[in-house]
Structures are given as C-alpha cells and as structure tokens.
Amino acid sequence: MRTALRKLFPLVMRHSSWILLAVIIAAFSLHSSRFFEWESALNIAKQASYLGIVATGMTLVLLTAGIDLSVGSNMYLSAVVGGWLLSEAGAPLPAALAGCLGVGLLFGLFNAVAVTRLGILPFVVTLATLVAGRGLGLWITQSQPVSFPDAVLEIGSARLFGALPLPIAIFALVAMAAHVFLTRTQTGRQLYAVGRDLEAARRAGIPTRRIRALAYVACGGLAALGGFIAVAQYGNVNAGFGKNCELSAITAAVLGGTSLFGGTGSVLPGTVLGVILIQAVTTGLVSARIDLYLQDLILPAIIFAIVLLDSIRARLRGPSRTLRRRA
Amino acid sequence: MRETSGWRGLLRRRASASSETQVTIVSRSPAQKKTFRPARWIGRWMLSDFFILGLAAVYFLVLCGIDPRMAGGRNIANLASSAWPLLALVLGQMFVLITGGIDLSQTSIMALTSVLGGILMTSSVQPEIFAETPLWGVLLTEEGGILAGLPGGAPIGLLAMVAAGAAVGLLNGLAVAKLRMPPFLVTLLSMMFFSGLALYLTQSENIRRLPDAWIALGKGQVGSVPLALLLVAGLALAAHVLLQHTVLGRWLYAVGKNPRAARISGIPVDRVVIAAYAFSGLMAAIASILYSARLEGGRPTLGEDKLLDIIGAAVIGGISLFGGKGRVSSAVCGVAFFVLLANSLDMMSHWYKLPYFTVNVVKGSVILLAALLDVGRTWLRMRGGGSPRREKRLPADAETRPSTGPDGLRRAARVMAGESSLRPPRRDDPPAAAPSMARDPSSPAVLEFRGTGKSYFGVPVLRGIDLSLARGEILGLVGENGAGKTTLMNILGGVARPDEGTMRLDGEIYSPRGPHDARRAGVAFIHQELNLFGNLSIADNLFIDGFPRRAGLLIDRRAARRRAAALLGELGLDLDPDMRLDRLAPGEQQLVEVARALGQGAGLIIFDEPTTSLTSRETAKLFDVIRKLRDERKAVIYISHVLDDVLRLADRVAVLRDGALVDVAPREQLTAGRLISCMVGREISDLHPRRSTRPSPDVVLEVSDLGREGAVEDIGFALRRGEVLGLFGLMGSGRTELARLIFGLDARDSGSVRVRGEPLGRLDPRRAVRKGLALVTENRRDEGLLPDASASDNLALAALERFARRGPGGFVNRSALARAVEGTARALQIRSRDLRRQPVQTLSGGNQQKVVIGKWLLASPSVFLLDEPTRGIDVGARYEVYSIINRLAEKGAGVLFISSEIEELIGMCDRILVLHEGRMRAELPRDAFDPERILAAAFGWKEER
After folding, report:
1. Which of B167, B458, B584, B849 has its CA 20 to 30 A from that of B411?
2. Is there a contact between B282 and B158 (Cβ–Cβ < 8 Å)?
3. Angle between helices B153-177 and B269-295 (to 10 degrees)
4. Distance CA B925, CA B496 (A)
5. CB-CB: which of A120, A130, A197 is closest to B375?
6. With 80 as the cut, is the pLDDT of residue B760 above it?
7. What is the value of pTM for the model shown?
C-alpha cells in the first residue's frame, strides 16, 4: 500500500495541472449540468482565445528569462490606432489590422532595443512602457471610448466552416505556430538555451541579442493580435482596455509550467492549458453565481495552490538528481 | 545576467585603448594622487547617492526660473505631503529589494489596511450602503466601527492597521522563504487577493468619518513641522540605523548578495527574508495611514497606481533589483526626484492645460532614463572596482592583474630584473626548444601566434607570445593562475581580442571577431564551465547553432538523431540523443561537448581544465578520446593545473608566467619539478609545510552511524584536537555529501554528530556554526563568498553576532570588528588593493580561498570541514593554504581535509579515511600511507592480506 502511494504521488504531482482541470470541470458540472456541454466548452475556449494569444507571446519572453509587463498597454495602444485607422482615416479592415499589428510590433521592438541594446532590466523597461504606452493611447483618445464598425464584430462572431468560432481558430493557429517554432526550429531551440544560460549561449556562438529581441517583438505583435481579437468580441475599447492583462498572461504561462527564471516551459500543452484553466474557473464561478467580489478572491487562491504544488514538485525532484549522479 | 550591451562594450574598448593613462594611475606616486582630476571627480560624484539629489535640485531651480509658482508655499506643501507616504513605501520596498526579492503587494496592503482602519474606527456609516458588506454587524454597525466610541480606540485601531500590514507581509515572506516560491509570483498573487479582499469587505464603497486623531497624523503639524514628516523621518532614521549598524542589516545585504553563502555562514536566511517582507508590509500600512488621512477616508482602491511610483523611485535612487544594494539615502534621493517630477508635470498640465496623459509618457521615459543612468553608473563602478559586476566570467587572468598590491610589485620587480623575459636566463634549464618547432616536419604549423599581446584595464596580461602548433599534436599549456593562459585561449577562441600581434591559422591571417568566427574557422574551445544547456536534449546541445534542417527551416529531427548517435558513438558513448542533458554525469557532459566540437568539424580543439569535475575513470576515457583526436591529425591544446596529466598527455608543453612564454619543450625533456620551477620562477623544495605539533587525545568531533539515503551510510569516526584528518574519495563517493551532512546543510536519515562531546541535535547550519563547526565548500563562488562585496565584508560574515551586543537586533561594534578583520587579513596575507572596497571576485583564486577560510577564523570554531580547499588555485597559493591549515591544527582545531588529490593528503594529514560509494572503506594512520592502497580502497577493491 505504501509503495503504491509512493509511486502514485509523483505521478499525481507531475500531472497536477491536468488533474486540477478535471477536478474543476467535474465540480462545476456537478453544480450545474449546463457547464458540461459542447457549447459551453466552446464558449470557454472562445473567451480564452484573446488571452491565450497574449500569453503565448508572454511565454516566449519568459522562456528567455525576461518579462513583459507592457502587453496590456500595448493591446490598448494598438487597438486605439486600429480604431482610428478604421473610423477617422477610413482605411479598409485589412489595412487597419495591419496598422494595429504594426504598432504592436513597434512597441515590442522598443522594448527589445531597451533590453538588449541598452542593457536595462526587462522588468524596469516594460514597467516604464506599461505606463508610457497607456499614456500615449489615452492622449490619442482623450480617454474617450473607441467603438468599432460592425465588420469587426462580425469577425468575433464568425464561425469557420460554420462550426468553429474564428477567435478559437486564430488562437489554435497561433499556438500551433509557436509550438512548431519552439520545438522544431533552430531559433526556437536557441531560445531555450538563451533562457537557461545567457553567457554560455553567447560563447556557444548563438546570436543571443537577436534571439532575445525576437521574443519581445513577437510578444508585442501577439499582444496587438490578442487585443484585436478582444475588440472583435466586445466591439469597443474603453480607457481600461487590457488593464492587468499582463498579470493574467503571466499567471496563465506559469500555470502551464513556464518558469519565471527562463529556459523551462511550453506553449503546447503548457500555456494553452493554463489559459483554459483560468477561463474555466472564471466561467465556472460565474455560472455558479458566486458573489462577484468573492470570485476575485477564489482565482488567486487557486493559482496559489497550483504554484505551491509546482514548487513542492520541484523540491521532490531535487534529491533524486544526486542519486542519479551516483549511479 | 546580462549580455554586454552595445555602448557598454564600446566604452570598455575605449578603456583598454587608453591604456597609457591607466598605467600612470596604477603606478601613481603620492604627489600625483592629490592632483585634481575633473573626470575622476565627476565620476565619483556620479557614483554617490547624492547625484540624483543634485539633479533634482537643478531641475527644481530651472522650473522655478520658468515659473515662480513652483516655489510657492502651497506647491511646496503639496510636494512635501505626497513625498512622506511614498518614502515610507520605498523604504519598505527597499528592504525586500535588498534581499533580492520584490514586493508587488504593497499597493494591496495599503488598500486593505485603509479599509480595515475605516471599518474599525469610522464614527458613522450609511446603513443602506454598508448593510450588504460581510462585516456588517460584526465590526461595523449603524453606530460606526467597533472602536469608534471607545476611549483610546484610535491608537488601537491604528496599531491594528500596522499589525495587519505586517501580517500580510509576514505571509508573503513565509511563502517566499519557507515554500520557496518566486517572490514575483507570491506578491503578485497576494496583490490580487488582498485588493480583492479590500473591495469585498466594503463592496467598493469608500468609508468616511475617520477619527480626528487619525486625520491629524496626515494633516497635523507640530509647530510648523508636519507630523507626517516627523513620523517618516523617524522611520527613515531607524531604517538607516538598522541597515548600517546592526547585525540584521548586514545580514540583509549578505542574503541579497549570495543566499547560499549566507546560509553556510550561519545566517538565518529564512528569518531575514521573512523580516524584510514583514517590514515592507508594515511600511505599506503606515503609508496607508498617511494617505487615508489626507483623503479623509478608508478606500478600497487606495494605492492602485502606486506600484510605478514605488519601483520608479527605487530605481531612480539606485536601489538594485538584483539585490544586495540600496541605502536609506538612495531611497530618499529617489523619492525626492520622483515626487518633484510628478509634481512639476501635474502643475504644468494644470497651469498650461497640457493634456494630463503626457504625464505618464514623461514618467515612463524618465524611469527608462534613470535605468540607463544606472547602467552607466554600474559601468563606472566596475572600472573603479576592477571588474564588471554582473558579468560573471571576466577572463580569469585579468582578475588577478590590477597589480598595485605587494604581489604585483614583486612581479614588476622581477620583470625589471629581467627574470621573466621571454626565455629564462637560468643556467640549469636545458636549452628551450624553438617555439615554432613542429613534431613532424611533414605537417606544417596549423596555428601560429606572433607577438600576441593583450592588456586589461591598462595592465598587460599577455606580452609578445610566439607559439605554434602542428596538426596531430597535443600542446600542454601550464602556468600559475593569472599567468595568461585563459586570456591567450580566449583570444584564440574569439572571446577576447588581442591588442597587438598576429595569429595565423593554416597560414592565413586569423582574427576572429567573436566565438562564431572562431568556430567557423574550425577552432573549438571547451571551457572549464561547460557551454551546455541542461534543459535541452543531447541532440539539441550538439546542434544548437547548426541543426540539420529540411527546406532550410524545420529541424530534421531524424537526421539530427542519427548524426548525434554517430558522433556519440565515435567517442564511445552509448546514450540516447533525446535524453535531457542534465541527467548525464559530469564526465559524459564533457564528452558531449567534445562531440559538439567534432560535429562542427573542428580542426583545433582547446581544453581548459577539463578534468576538475571528472572521476579518474572519466578522466582516463577523456584522455583516450584526446589521443584519438591527435591520431586523426587534429591539433589539441590542453590546459591544466594537474601537471602529471599534462606530462602524460602532451607532446610538447608551453609554460606561461606573468603573461610571457617562459618555456616550450617536448615532453621527454620535462619533469613536474621543472615545470613548477618554471611556472613559479623559484624552486619549491617542499610542497607541504611541516607542522610543529601533534594531535592531542581529546576528541572535538565525533560522528557515529551517520547516513542519508542515496549519499552515505554508516559513517563513524572521531576527530581529535590538533589533528588533520584526510578524507579521500572519488567523485560521487559521497565525500562532499558527508561534509554537508555533518554541517547540517542536508538532513540526515540516521546517526549523530557530537562537537566537543555535545550532540548537535536538530540539523541546521546556524546551529552548527554556533557549536563551533566551520565549512569551506568546494565551490567558493557559489557557496563561500559574496562575490561583489569587499574582503572585509566577507571576512566579517560569520562572526557578526560576536561583535554585537544582544543578538541580531543589536549594534555591531564596528571598530572592534574592523580591527579583527584587518588582523585576520594580515595574518593570512590576503592581498587586496583595498580590503574595504575591492570586490573579492576580482582577487585571485588563492586570495579568495584565504578570505573564505579567514571568514571562519573570526568565529573561532573548533572543527574545520575543508572540502577541496586547494581546488583551482595555483602552486604558490596552495603552499600558503597548507600553511594556514597547519596553523589551525597547531592552535588546537580539528581539521577534516577532503580532497581528491592523494599527494596533498599524504603530505598534510595525520590519518586518512577513504570513502567508496558512500561507505568507509579504509582508515590509514600516517605510517601506513601509500597512494596505491588509498586508491585501491577508493575504487572499492578488497585488500589482500
């Protein structure tokens, strides 16, 4: 019995996030039978998709042992520019989308240059651009809400082949692309190397600066894309749009097993799982009609529990390594 | 760690280019010292905390010039009242930052305590709004808060707020220290949770009608001085005294600089970290009291946007986010600047109708500028201190070079006397072989150095190197630490660039601009610390900068696996290419690195100290591989301190001393003795000094039945006063684990440890230190030293409490401590330009080791556990370390001397214990010392009798 437990325990620990997801779904399904339906699953995925796209970009940055606190402001600024292009400049939708993504990429490039060329800490750089970026956006809008034409909303509610909501399809595409990039391309593998040991990576001849810059630029672009998807679902952008999104993106990535110290983590299943987990809890709490204020308390508590499990897991792994060295 | 940024790199190049001026500084005379140098003066001012304050003053004066309203009484009052709470916040944050953490939850602590204070103390609320809140009827009724009517209710309520803030901080600290969760995440989650809680408790409503006593704290005045100023100034003063004059303060810095070394030095790291977070929470509560008083209400959204102000002010003040740095004056200056900036922007947007949003844009830019300034200041400080702060591996040779110390003078004198000219004019030396001599006339020189030279910080580390290497040849390269070996190889590997001379590779001029170029030219550099990535698979590591690809984009995993298997097979490694690298033994990892070099088609392979972490079996295997490389007509350069290995392996050996080539000769003409005398420039007749005393019969350390699963089992021995007890074992035999078990770094499964007859009880390093144990671990940098602190600070580390009255909170007797530290430094002959300022990481390996041992001397322990105390230090310094060990024994300490070098144990010890696979296999008294018997026991062979 004891040995069976001993074997089971690490197994449980290793798949704690999956098990938790199952437990959460089971719990909410017991509470309300509607939770366990295809439509509500799609709904969760759809609502998770914009955050998922942002969190995918965040994962790239976290893998290089960096951090990007500015994604929320980036979402706001790029959406505002996209909205301005559509309504004021009368640009067609594709051009507006391109402009929106361009702003996001430029935003990311600014972070990248400050981090890799000027040698300033990512935390400080992106904290500064978090403030400045939103200030810039508010300047443009004079803190008035920006509304978007129906064409944009149609994107949010469109379904691919009549079944799959477009936001989910885009999220899936982004996640797949990031996964292939990370696991199947040289640059992707180098990203992990840079995050593990920057100095060693430099000596191994890896273009560390370009790799780190790439992560920030990609994160900027994905933040803009995620922002656009969010706009397509909600239809307008107010002054608080994207606020605290960086926190959700970071927690989603961490829930999916990405380390804040760099070099460890994945988009598939990692970050995608993390995002779905967060959204499932949120949706579940709403459908269970839990007090709105209490919801804000339950989510951090659950995340804390998962991260705690993760750190216990890391410590369990500790001693076995010395054993292996001896063998 | 950061990579060298563009303009910092540029500046460094400029620094080495202007070497002439630097030399004059190095050899300055007293008269020159006093000359006024504006550049240096400005540099020094830029380094001080008050630089920011100066900038703030200038900025303020300019603004007043533009608009006199800035200096108006109302604006000044406004300025001041926003400064005090922020200063409280930044002071708290600074404590956490010093420990290397971060506290994002300060803002939510402010909201929570504000709400809590409001609920407890408000004199009346509207029931229609608050009847729904969870605390209605418990702490809050129609008559107001529970403390509202009570006499002395306000002070109790305020104390409750402070206690609540400290409690939240305590929780953060517990999660960080005890549960080992990342500070960023812990405080992020607690920020989300407690701001949620604040909103929940009030259902987003503000609470009004606070007691007068509370409001007076924010708005009241004593005479004409605001009460808030007095309060915060008092706190700042207390924080300053705490940081600079108490044991706890010193511990905070030590924990931030190197938590592992701090723990081994007997510092209660967990408690120090918890205290820092609790203090941060407490200060947040105080800030909350002041802010709420100004706003006359308990607000659940208080401090929502304050995080930027806190971090911004800290960064501008120069408090490092890496930990270990920050003073109260930095916080004061940072807050002054930031408040002034925010205020002036507010005023201007108000007076000139500028859009308010510009304020945030400017704030963000200023923070970036401040960070940039800090990068520049760090660079300046590096120049002053001798070494970059965060660039871990400056070429090892350069570290020892800034030669104004007695060592440097001695060397300089030797150079002047012509002693270390290119060829030593020593009569007893056999004629040195011509440097360009090739072993086989049919194979031309593949590599040729001609007049290669290099200086760091204006001090030459390499001079006029002429050396060549042929295909199918192994060249051994030896020299003391600081002789220039690593620099020469860094030049070859493209890591550093020479200042003079040329290199030719296969007859072509070769000047690599980076490791990339070197690799392309077929030069592979296998560093002492491996360039491998534990988080990736073997195949990923082999091809990290050149995967086989399909269609030029996607990695062809099958081809990668196949080629990896082939490369591993060539080296006799039977491993799955998909295995994660960190599962391999150190020896296997080394061979993976060799496989990578081969896979890149390297024709010239440099090995820098490859055997330091290998077992003898792995070493033998590596040597077979190196010989095989030679037979395949590759050129090999082999650098090592293990002279026997060099003589066994190399075809020719080159000796460097003080940056010059002093000897090159074929192996047949060399002996270890000659190599040593060449390297040192003097004969070392006896490698091991004699001891004048014999062990006494009293036992100081008794270990019985000690065991830990997977490390050691059933270990028992006794160590006597004045005894040097050797502990020999191969890598992985459990020798290091045993030392860590005795010291209480790892938990034991069985057994007991007694120091001077007293059982050690619960295992914990702090306890071990108090009972008189001292541990010198095998890696100085990670576990022994605070690398960027001075020798003085390092030496004081383990003994701080002895120089303080009444425990950790007590004041350190600084003058007594300084005297003791200087005495120790003198006794150990620690060579540093400036004991109080030069970072220890810029000292040579031998001097660093002396600092680690000296740190313990001040705590006067009765048992020393020395784990590989001579690892990586050169011949001369070794002798000094041996002498120190003898002196410890002579003074009555017991020494457990762990080593993987049989010779030094035989030379130094009274008895030798041998470990094999975690068990004690032999105990040999001095008259039974025999290298073969020791090695046989270490390999687990049964003795034949």
Report:
1. B849
2. no
3. 140
4. 50
5. A120
6. yes
7. 0.80
By the 8 A CB rule, do A101 and A194 touch?
no
CA A32-A37-A38 angle, to 5 degrees, is: 160
| CA pair distance B669, A232, nearest whole angstrom | 81
The CATH number that applies at residue A46 is 1.10.3470
Q: CA angle, B195 as apex, B191 and B200 as ends, to 5°? A: 145
Question: What is the distance between the alpha carbons of residues B630 and B492, in angstroms, rounded to a whole number?
Answer: 19
Q: How confident is the model at residue B172 (pLDDT cuts 50, 70, 90)?
A: very high
Asked, as a colleague might, if the bond just before A319 is cis with ω within 30 of 0, I would say no
Q: Could you read off the pLDDT of A57-94 as tens digits, one per residue?
A: 999 999 999 999 999 999 999 999 999 998 888 888 89
Strands B911-916 and B221-222, by their bridges, are unpaired
Residue A210 lies in a domain: yes
| Among A197, A294, A309, the residue to mutate for chain B (most B Cβ within 10 A) | A197
Q: Which helix (H) or strand (E) holds B867?
A: strand B863-867
Residue B826 has pLDDT above 50, yes or no: yes
Which of A63, A189, A248, A295 is best to mutate for the B interface (most B CBs within 10 A)? Answer: A189
In a domain, A252, yes or no: yes
- Compute CA B411 distance to the chain's CA centroid, rounded to the nearest angstrom: 29
Sign of the dihedral defined by the CA atoms of residues B365, B370, B374, B376, in that order: positive
| Beta-strand relationship, B500-505 and B508-509 | antiparallel
A10 falls within a domain: no
Nearest of B600, B592, B601, B597 to residue B569 by alpha carbon: B592
Amino acid letter at B665? A
Nearest CA to B718 out of B750, B693, B752 is that of B752
Domains in chain A, number: 1
Average pLDDT across chain B, whole number: 81
**Which of B196, B519, B732 shows the shortest C-beta gap to A297?**
B196
B31, amino acid identity: A
Choose, out of A184, A292, A295, the residue to mutate when testing the contact with B (most B CBs < 10 Å). A184
Q: Which residues pair with B839 in a beta bridge?
A: B790
Rounded Cα–Cα distance for residues B600 and B588 (Å):
18
How large is the greatest C-alpha to C-alpha distance in chain A, in angstroms?
72
Task: Please give the residue of chain A at the shortest CA–CA distance from B357.
Answer: A135
- Alpha-carbon separation of residue B147 from B124, B125, B214 (angstroms): 11, 14, 13
Among the partner residues B193, B514, B543, nearest to A301 by beta-carbon distance: B193
The verdict on residue A310 lying in a domain is no
**Rounded CA gap, B576 and B130, in Å?**
67
**What are the tokens at B649?**
């392996």
Range of the domain at A146: 35-289
DSSP B35: S
- pLDDT tens-digit profile of B471-500? 899 999 987 666 788 788 888 888 888 888
**Residue A290 touches partner B, C-beta closer than 8 Å:** no
Distance CA B320, CA B747 (A): 34
Amino acid letter, residue A237: V
Residue A135 is nearest to which of B358, B530, B531, comparing CB atoms? B358
| pLDDT tens-digit series, residues A11-41 | 666 666 677 777 877 777 777 766 667 778 8
Query: What's the token pair of residue B605?
Result: 């392979």
- Contact in structure between B94 and B242 (CB atoms under 8 Å): no
Q: Residue B638 forms beta bridges with which residues?
A: B476, B607
Q: What tokens were used for A71?
A: 């994604």
Residues of A in contact with B732 (CB under 8 A): 325-326
Q: What angle do CA A209, B1, B368 make, to 5 degrees?
A: 70
Give the integer Cα–Cα distance in Å for B346 and B249.
37
Going by C-alpha positions, the residue among B247, B332, B232, B256 that lies closest to residue B100 is B256
Note the pLDDT of residue B685: 52
Q: Nearest Cα to A153, choosing from A172, A167, A171, A169?
A: A167
